[in-house]
Amino acid sequence: MQLAEKTVLLTGGSAGIGRAMARQMQAKGARVIITGRNPERLDAMRAEGFTALEADLSHPAGVDALIAQLGDAELDILINNAGQLVDHDFRKGTPDADAADEAIYANLSAPIRLITALVPRLRARSQAAIVNVTSGLAIAPAARQPVYCATKAGLRFYTLALREQLKDSAIQVIEALPPVVDTQMNDGNPMKKMPAEECARQILAAIEQGRDEANIGMTRALRIADSISPALARQITLRF
Ligand SMILES: NC(=O)c1ccc[n+]([C@@H]2O[C@H](COP(=O)([O-])OP(=O)(O)OC[C@H]3O[C@@H](n4cnc5c(N)ncnc54)[C@H](OP(=O)(O)O)[C@@H]3O)[C@@H](O)[C@H]2O)c1
User: Fold this and answer.
1) CB of 166 closer than 6 A to ligand 1?
2) Which of 83, 91, 109, 131 could in theory staple to 174 by disulfide, Cβ–Cβ 3.0 to 4.6 A?
3) Is residue 117 over pLDDT 90?
4) Among this protein's residues, is 148 annotated catalytic?
């Protein structure tokens, strides 16, 4: 699918991988509507010519408010990119259950609620796409982040099933599985990180080339390890 002239709703487009995707899609001639929570970041994106909508996606009312702000705008592409990393580690004390609930909503429930609301208008287009950004940790989990990994594995399975449901429609259903990327999410993470721009480029290439999945960087090696032995893949990621 060509991105030129397409209208895209991109959640979490005010920072990190989302911001890099927004800029690259705009350069390709797409109309990009981004969302985020931080007002200053949203203003900065407006100054770059984006439509930027404030929306807290960690609860149902925030998603509904976003859908209301969209009005009856036509959409060609929905990219569910907003996500929250949350540590949940009993080795360091009792984890924050509310933080876990928020992350579950933002990472899993909000994409499902947005898809549910927006599939009818995507169906009205001659070509459309839904892109769900999961993670290499949807393949095998990290010990520190069981909640985050559960949300990403949940979104991965939702995506696989949705693709089957929509296979005879004009809506392409794509999963993007980033590796460790150099964004605020990884502040203080000593691991080698991929630049956000390169990760964004590979996600957009999957859309343009009509691929079902973007297995990016180290995720590709993890997929191979998992296909040989899931226990081997887990041995790699549980230490993260
Ligand atoms: N970075 C990595 O290594 C990595 C690896 C694998 C997968 N991913 C996935 O890639 C996606 C983008 O990650 P990133 O590293 O670019 O993250 P990031 O730099 O932290 O940016 C996250 C974006 O999502 C928005 N956001 C976060 N929580 C939100 C919420 N509850 N409601 C509304 N907006 C929210 C943020 O907006 P505000 O700041 O305004 O709230 C921001 O625009 C996420 O789904 C993440 O799980 C990242």
Assistant:
1) no
2) 131
3) yes
4) yes
Per-residue pLDDT of 165-221, as tens digits, reads 999 999 999 999 999 999 999 999 999 999 999 999 999 999 999 999 999 999 999
Whether 178 is in the pocket of ligand 1, judged by its Cβ within 6 Å, is: yes
Query: pLDDT tens digits for 152-167?
Result: 999 999 999 999 999 9
Hey, what amino acid is at 66? L
Q: What are the boundaries of each domain within the chain? A: 7-237
Position in ligand 1 atom list of the atom nearest CA 152? 47
pTM, entire model: 0.98
CATH code for the part of the protein at 7-237: 3.40.50.720
Q: CB-based contacts of 221: which residues, under 8 Å, 6+ apart?
A: none
Ligand 1 touching residue 176 (CB < 6 A)? no
144 burial type by CB count under 10 A (0-12 exposed, 13-18 middle, 19+ buried): middle
Token look-up 């390709």 returns: 28
